[in-house]
């Protein structure tokens, strides 16, 4: 009320010269100048990138629980009934069953979920295909229930493309989203600066929403308070999201954290030469490798086996923990194909912190880093981020209306003659 009272006198011609001088000095304090500077940056950046950020944040919110939604909608594909007293079929029989349904298809890996009521996923790739297709199979009956390519997965792919490059050509859409993300990071930082109250007593006001006030005040509080509470997560989202927008940013991240950037394809010419020479076919079963993996990685988790080939001497297995607070990092084993002896064991928890961060960029960005717990926090934060361009635009429109009203009032006062004022 005090601020509104003072604001009402700014354009009042009845103010004395001394009062005007006091008002001018209070408005020209260094903090107010700084605050106005950052407020202008925040305003115009928000107006310029608001629509793009709204689309990116909305699609990010929808995509957060993509896997859970996909498995719920297509429960007949992803879920299985566990027969009483029944055990799973041999993995080689499951692989054979899937390969029979795919003409010229070759299975490359099999994913075994920790949940016994979930179907196994076998990745099959045809010759000439860059990526394989996941076939969901009932491990108790050997029935192929379908593939991961469903109507809902196509919808989420559209959401993904909107999120990454606005459904435009990647050479056009990716930079637009990238620079909008840079702006989003700046909006978050400038928003925090603007949020800082001038007086300590006013801190509580910036942390809560006064629901009993007018809708304009509620909208203002929603923008300020919710933006403050979610600022840290939103900053993480934006800084990690740039990883997929700019090569120079990705290279800079690896250089900053002192981690060598991974390269695609086989490493070293010697390994290629060895792979060209056929090796003896092993007599071990996939269950043998799985048994060793569970002994070495003794916890409940989802397991993925890259199927052994005749020209490769090793078998690689990856395992990740499951649960509400499960860390998303994977543990990996490399086993000798002939003996199942452990040749290499890489635990995520043993990696240096800088390597853990760089290997978890995607999980940090999507909120999967700490399982369902962090995904819920990210979902709420992303939902707030979606609302910020809307509430911010409403605040801007209200200020424009207020300025126009003040301008009209000032004009009317200036047009009054002395006789009218005395009368």
UniProtKB/TrEMBL annotation:
TM annotation in the entry: 41-66, 176-196, 226-246, 376-397
Family annotation (InterPro entries): PepSY-ass_TM
Pfam family, one: PepSY_TM
Keyword Coiled coil: no
Keyword flag Membrane: yes
Record keywords: Membrane, Transmembrane, Transmembrane helix
Protein name: Uncharacterized iron-regulated membrane protein
Organism: Reichenbachiella agariperforans
């Amino acid at each position: 009320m005090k601020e509104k009272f003072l604001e009402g006198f700014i354009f009042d011609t009845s103010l004395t010269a001394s009062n005007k001088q006091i008002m001018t000095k209070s408005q020209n304090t260094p903090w107010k100048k700084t605050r106005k500077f950052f407020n202008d940056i925040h305003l115009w950046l928000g107006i310029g990138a608001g629509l793009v950020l709204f689309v990116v944040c909305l699609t990010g919110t929808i995509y957060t629980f993509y896997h859970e939604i996909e498995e719920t909608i297509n429960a007949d594909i992803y879920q299985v009934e566990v027969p009483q007293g029944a055990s799973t079929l041999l993995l080689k029989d499951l692989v054979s069953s899937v390969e029979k349904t795919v003409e010229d298809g070759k299975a490359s890996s099999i994913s075994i979920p920790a949940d016994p009521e979930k179907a196994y996923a076998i990745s099959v790739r045809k010759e000439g295909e860059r990526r394989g297709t996941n076939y969901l199979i009932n491990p108790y009956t050997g029935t192929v229930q379908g593939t991961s390519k469903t109507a809902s997965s196509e919808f989420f792919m559209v959401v993904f493309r909107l999120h990454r490059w606005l459904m435009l050509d990647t050479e056009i859409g990716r930079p637009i989203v990238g620079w909008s993300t840079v702006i989003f990071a700046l909006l978050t930082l400038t928003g925090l600066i603007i949020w800082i109250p001038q007086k300590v007593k006013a801190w509580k006001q910036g942390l809560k929403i006064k629901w009993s006030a007018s809708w304009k005040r509620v909208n203002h509080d929603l923008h300020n308070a919710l933006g403050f509470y979610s600022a840290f997560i939103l900053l993480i989202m934006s800084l990690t999201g740039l990883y997929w927008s700019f090569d120079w940013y990705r290279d800079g991240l690896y250089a900053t954290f002192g981690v060598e950037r991974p390269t695609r394809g086989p490493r070293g010419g010697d390994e290629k030469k060895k792979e060209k020479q056929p090796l003896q076919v092993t007599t071990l079963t996939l269950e043998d490798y799985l048994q060793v993996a569970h002994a070495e990685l003794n916890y409940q988790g989802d397991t993925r086996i890259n199927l052994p080939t005749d020209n490769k001497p090793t078998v690689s297995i990856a395992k990740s923990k499951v649960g509400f607070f499960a860390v998303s990092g994977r543990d990996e084993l490399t086993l000798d194909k002939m003996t199942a002896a452990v040749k290499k064991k890489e635990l995520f928890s043993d990696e240096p912190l800088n390597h853990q961060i760089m290997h978890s960029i995607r999980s940090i960005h999507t909120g999967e880093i700490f399982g369902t717990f962090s995904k819920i926090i990210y979902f709420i934060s992303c939902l707030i981020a979606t609302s910020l361009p809307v509430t911010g635009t409403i605040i801007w429109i209200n200020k424009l209306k207020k300025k126009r009203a003040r301008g009209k009032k000032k004009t009317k006062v200036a047009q009054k003659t002395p006789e009218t004022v005395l009368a």
